[in-house]
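Usage

Read records sequentially. Each one opens with the input sequence:
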Amino acid sequence: MFDPTPALPRFQLRKAAMDDFEFAEALTRNNMGGYYRRHHLVWRGDLFLGSWRESENYILESDGEPIGVLRVTEEGDSLHIRDVQIADGHRRQGGGTYLLDVAHRWARARGLRELQLRVFVDNPAALLYQRMGYRLAGPRLAQFGAIRHMARRV
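and closes with the structure output:
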C-alpha cells in the first residue's frame, strides 16, 4: 500500500549554540583521544574553545538527539572543515557523508573553489574522504608527520 506521507529526513543540522560546546568538545576529545595518544599529542581544551569561537559550528541530530558535529571556517577561497565528528553507535550510517555533502554545497553556494581538511594518517575516515574526492594536498603536518592535509575541488 502506498503511504502518501513524505519520509522525514534522517538527519537534521542546526547551528550550534554555546550550550552545545560541552557536547562538541567531549565528542571530539573522545573520538580523537586514541589518535592523540598514539601520536604523542596532548588534548588542549583551551585551544578547542578558541577554535570553537572562530568557527561556524553545527550539531547533527537524529530523532532530536545530538549525534555529531560539523565545524568549518572560510579561509580565502577555501572552506576548511575543522571537524566532522559522529558519536559512537551512530557511525557508518551516513552521517559523515551527509556532513561532507553539506559542506560541499555550502562551498559551492559561497563561490569557493575548494574544501580542505586534515586527518590523522591512521584514521579510517581518510578512506571516506578519498571516496568523496579528497586528495592529498601537500606534505604531512605536525611534528610527527601524523596528519595529512587533504583537499577537494568544488
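Summary fields computed downstream for this record:
- The chain has a mean pLDDT of 91.
- The longest strand covers residues 65-75.
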